Known about the structure:
Residues 559-769 form the Lon N-terminal domain. The protein is of the alpha+beta class. The strands form 5 sheets. A 5-stranded mixed barrel has the order 7-9-12-13-14. Strands 1-2 form a two-stranded antiparallel sheet. The two termini are 68 Å apart.
Amino acid sequence: MSSPAVARSSAAGSRETGPGPRSRGRFWEVGGGGGGDGLERAAAEPERWELLLRRGELLALGGHLKGALEAYAAALRRGAPARPECLGTLVDCLVLNYRLRHGLRCSATPAAGAEPGAGGLLSCLGCRGFLSEPVTVPCGHSYCRRCLRRELRARCRLCRDRLPPAPAAATDAPGAGPRPPPLAAAIASSDFRTSVVLNHLAEKWFPGQRERARAAGRLGELLCQGRYREALAAACEALRAEPSDLTLKIYRAESYAGLQEFKAAIEDLNAILCQLPNWPEVYFRKGKVLHDAGFFGDALQLFLQCLALDEDFAPAKLEVEKILCDLLSPENLKEGLKDSSWGPLPCIKNKPFGFPSVMEEPLSASELSPEQSEEIPQVTSEPVKGSLNHARSAQAVNSTEMPAREDCLKRVSLEPFLSVQEKGALLKRKLSLLDQDVIVNEDGRNKLKKQGETPNEVCTFSLTYGDIPEELIDVSDFECSLCMRLFFEPVTTPCGHSFCKNCLERCLDHTPYCPLCKESLKEYLADRRYCVTQLLEELMVKYLPDELSERKKIYDEETAELSHLTKNVPIFVCTMAYPTVPCPLHVFEPRYRLMIRRSIQTGTKQFGMCVSDTQNSFADYGCMLQIRNVHFLPDGRSVVDTVGGKRFRVLKRGMKDGYCTADIEYLEDVKVEKEDEIENLRQLHDLVYSQACSWFQNLRDRFRSQILQHFGSMPGREENLQATPNGPAWCWWLLAVLPVDPRYQLSVLSMKSLKERLTKIQHILTYFSRDQSK
């Protein structure tokens, strides 16, 4: 069903359709704005929920969000499985609408002039903080280990490539999403090995930041283990030494949230947003705190704000899907859709939140209610357990009486059973704290800033540093451990080691293991992407421009040397090849893997083919092969589709990196000039061609089908016999299929006279025709 049909149906609103026989098409005529009766008619049979889900997707894509919500709700009532991932399209459309309504810019790529975390080149593309424990992903870009472990992003910020999932998500658990690519799964299962070279540079150039990053990593481990008290104490102690470190504030906020000190967590997150108002992760953390406190409307808006800034922030999208799935479920539908009082965030300043009204135009600051800008009392350091009354305002979260986690969960679980009035009173609560600015006390805690007050210090990432001191820049830090030269097109393996691309490929030609740590690289070899590590390349361009230019010059000279088609031509010693005749090859030897790869990289896509010779390694005559296609197998072998080109004679033999080379000269047929000689040649050609066709037609069906499958059909008769340097194509096709001695074939290949070649072929055909007649 096309989108225009949905648009037309949505324009009809909730108009009732006239009586008449029901058809499948009438299902799509239901109004998108409020056609609840139409939805019921459309889903009279339980098996129609698939159509309802599809209708919801189409309505969402068409911008009819309320109709989409009703369609999804009707699908759930009719037995659709309540899976959050089914709402992915709806969430994407909500985020797009939200972004357009609020004039936000998606930060899929860093904005020009925006702070990358003040970390310069050594900053994480995900969190924009210091690149602590750098991990290079398959696309060649680098992220800090924390971002990858927490799955903060689904796709690379720069190239939109999918990032490896966390180890738990990479398993084949029942009900899990699509399996990640093998290489991404391998990186995840190795627990995101850090890049050895980048990690060394970070420690050498910025030891202070590296040590602070280690401390933050230890905080993350404590939080993962649920040791919130210890994490809070460690975070406060670290912040006393580094009060402007925003990453530490995030960890402290998570500690507070784990201890259910929701107001203190909000204060820390607000302090970060005062300095970096477009940091998506902070909006996500803030939304999680409010979600845990039971403020689902505010949490949902914060998650949407996070996704509006960064549409690939995977955890936020999952939370939105879960919230919508829960609220659209049949038991919550009656109350959830009718209630339009899910309180908005004062800092976002939009109208009361209902499902479609989250996209309404924002209010100006003058339209805010007095309660949204009300003064907030001072925060105490310890929570007092208690229960929240359903009619209490959002300042209960900001007061000294904080609910225990059990009380919050109990209150949330009872919400579906509240009356409309009670639910409205409960959900109208506002967090006026969110509109306040905070500054940092000497003890590491925050206090509220009065209107117009200027903080004594600016909270920023504690990563401000200029250029690297010249004495710390060492060329040896950028040397490939295989060729002992400066990196050229550096690539990083899943185990974290970096090599020149060509050096690593040559090693993998022999064995699928890392040259340094011997870890298996089978998935890396099968993927065959070998993406350049962009950060290493950028560092060399910035700090070692002269050395890199010299290294590129050497590479270009080596490539030019390999590009000659008459000198040092690579020779594949295997079988006979003929002009215009296909010659498929199975390449498995390391030396020939290298040879084929070089032929492709230089752009010539050509190499010579000769038969072996006991005295001279390979024969004196051969044929150039043109590579048409290469199919790489997962273990590094390849099937190469080639076709014969020019014939050549070997002038000089050589060897390079294990395979044979040769200086060659090309062979061409000597042209006949006299008219009578041309006529005699034409008669001989027609006679031999007819004899060849007769021989081929008299072959057994099995032999003929095998020849056709391998070499294709016999080329047709040519009018101009001397149009090409190699003569008629059917002669070479016939030589390839005739079962004659290679020495005899080689003698025909070396001939420069078409008349002599036709005579030789005539003798061969006469011999085989006699065998057929017996």
